[in-house]
Amino acid sequence: MTAELVRGQNHPLSQVRLEIRVSAGVPVLAGATLGDEHGTVPGAQWVAHPGAPALPGVEVSGQAAADHRLAVDLAALPEAVHRVTVLLALPAQPGGALRFGAVAAPRTAVAGPDGAEIVRFTLTGLDAESAVVALELYRRQDVWKVRAVGQGYARGLPALLADQGLPRAEELAAGIQEAVSRSLARAIPVPQHQDSSGPSAPQRSSSYDLQDPQDPQDVPAPGGPVDYSHPARRTRTAPPPPTGSPVPDGEPAPPVAGDAVGWSMEERLYNQVYGMFEDLARSTAAYRSAVDFADSRLEKELDQVLADPRSRLGTAGDAAREAAQARYTQLVDQARAAFDRDLAQLTAEAEVVEPALPPAYARWDNPVWHGYRVPTEPPMALRLGDLRLPESAPLRIPMLVRLPLERGLWIDSGPVEGADGSFLDSTEARRLALDAAVALAARLLAVHPAGEFAVQVVDPAGAGTQALLPLTRTGAVAVPPASGAAGVADVLGRLTRRVDLTQMAVRGGVAASLPADVDTAQHLLIVNDFPHGFDDRAVTQLRYLADEGPALGVHLLMVADREDADAYGPLLDPLWRSLMRLTPVPDDHLADPWVGHAWTYEPSLVPPGSGILQQVLTEVTEGHTKSE
Q1: CA 101 to CA 103: how far, in whole Å?
Q2: CA Rg, the chain, in Å?
């Protein structure tokens, strides 16, 4: 079964001889760089491109083309190579596309020697970029994996090569483009009836493809249907009805949990939830666009009525206005009917998927938590809360983020608006924020195997003692929360030392030789009431942990009001930007980069009066004790 990757996701490779397939709507150049254990490419001789298409273990196309087949033999790579980076770039040709946002999203796939595809990845969300890192094959502890990257560069191929650590990147990029310009006449056109899925697979636009209104190929034919279905999800037909029953015309099949691609049920559910998010975003965008069109058409028709003195007054003017309003109502009603149909299907799917979610993806009121046991493997993702749009209430989509966390989290304890529209006082806002932090920390502890994840707390003024009781009372936090300036300095010093030593060991290739007193488990540091109790040195260490910690297993969970740190001025701006902001109450501060919706985020909280948090944390503590 082929795994459909999303940006940042990786997948193990069990075969050493691979074929990397690229399919694009226009000629592109494809290349590969060979990097060391740090990802650095030592020189131009480690770059395979149309001017030098063959390197040990890697061979790329010698021309720009719409379709590419790159051959990779992992066993034939030099011993010093730990990373193979696959890159794509638009040729610098007159009249050619200048940015990936103006063309169909490139599609990539990794296949084995038998031709069977192992993974696929569509490079969505590109706009002004003219060069992009598509995939990355990397070796970690003698195991090769592939990662979907999708990192674009608006400054083109020179910026991409410079980011790989290559000296004289501008000259190398110019040489590659010159080699491409000599081969453009041999570019392979895209067959209109094929794609990388096989000879009979239909051409489908990617879920995140950006359309350029200046490109006539991106404009649907007048009156033609627009397909808003999710391109990577299975299309099912309803089972045949019992004999003698009428056959429903076009009725969709009942939704099924796990109806998406993936190697395991967990991965299928993750992809299904992500597909639901994309479907809701797309359907809402279509509805809003239709309403905007109806508004503009009504305004135009009313302007035409007012501009004609003969129809401005009297019965003719009234009739024209009524007709314009009727057409407006018809358009809006049609758009709403289509949106309601999509919404009903997504709601039915959510009702089936939600009960089937594993603990890492489930709400705290899901019965799956009542049978909780400490897992033996960490999950691929974690639920931070729910997302919804104004038009789709009460439908909520789980907000899942990949693990390990790539950035820290910040729960904003600043002024929040209550259900009645009034702002809560600062004490209540801070309590709600810390409650959300405790629920999130408990979830992280619960979904990791015993001994592989630890939580530490910095509470300089002791203001969170009551809210932290679920963690401290059950022993889930092995060390009492640090208080005062001395406690802050001690915790930050130990975690900074851990990051420093781990970083040096990884770079030196001796990760297994860390000192015995260095805890190799992942750590979550909850910082309450920042910046109280922090001096300049502590602030510097906190910024360091926010930047370097996630890659080395140290994660931040800040509970803070940004206004409390105004005295630091712009010094802390990089810190806030490096963290993902969450809120303790519903708030529409999250925006997706594809259609620009403002999504309302709702935290995942424990139901009032529920004892499930105490039960789960007790189980976590007992599991940790047994593992020691």
Answers
A1: 6
A2: 28
